[in-house]
């Protein structure tokens, strides 16, 4: 073994987390998905390419999901004009009429999709816990996953970086 390489080999485990932190090219790609929107339209992940995405898996019966919805509204309104899109994916066990009522009464300004058969939850990592939120960069790579409510300042800072 070349003695000059040894210090780098020892440092590699310490430097590895930086690649993930910076969203390097080895980041996991978001799954190819078809979103069945509440209004009857369908939207594919390919159609969203080039945007920064927040994909939130939620349910109307999830107290934390309901609590975080104002943050998602605020975040969407703050960043939408800069190439940012929010998709709230209602879990398959959530009755569509409850989702429609929630969306209407809260005047959600972003896309709301129904995961009718659980395909989206399976494709995005077999999601069982809500809320689960993914941040996807313009190249379609997942750069962050939150289980539970994101901390607003950190979320907004990440989005500022991705939209710069």
Structural class given helices, strands, pairing?
alpha/beta
Mean pLDDT: 88
For the largest beta-sheet, the strand count, sense and barrel status come to: 5 strands, mixed
User: What is the third-level CATH name, the topology of the domain at 56-147?
Assistant: Glutaredoxin
The percent of residues in helical segments reads 25-40%
The radius of gyration is 18 Å
Q: Widest sheet: strand order? A: 5-4-3-6-7
CATH class designation of the domain at 56-147: Alpha Beta
Listing every helix as H and every strand as E from the N terminus to the C terminus, the arrangement reads: HEEEHEHEHEEH
Count of extended strands = 7
How far from one another are the termini?
Answer: 43 Å
GO molecular function, one term: disulfide oxidoreductase activity
Keywords: Cytochrome c-type biogenesis, Redox-active center, Signal
Pfam families: Redoxin
Signal peptide: 1-22
């Amino acid at each position: 073994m070349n003695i000059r390489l040894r210090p780098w080999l020892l440092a590699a485990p310490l430097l590895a987390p930086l690649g993930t932190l910076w969203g390097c090219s080895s980041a996991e790609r978001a799954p190819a998905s078809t979103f069945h929107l509440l209004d009857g339209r369908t939207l594919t992940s390919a159609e969203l390419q080039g945007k920064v995405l927040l994909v939130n898996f939620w349910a109307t019966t999830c107290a934390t999901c309901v609590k975080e919805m104002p943050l998602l509204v605020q975040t969407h309104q703050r960043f939408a004009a800069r190439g940012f899109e929010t998709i709230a994916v209602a879990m398959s066990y959530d009755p569509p009429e409850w989702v429609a009522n929630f969306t209407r009464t809260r005047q959600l300004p972003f896309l709301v999709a129904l995961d009718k058969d659980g395909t989206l939850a399976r494709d995005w990592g077999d999601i069982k816990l809500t809320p689960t939120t993914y941040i996807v960069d313009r190249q379609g790579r997942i750069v962050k996953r939150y289980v539970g409510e994101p901390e607003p300042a950190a979320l907004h800072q990440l989005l500022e970086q991705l939209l710069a």
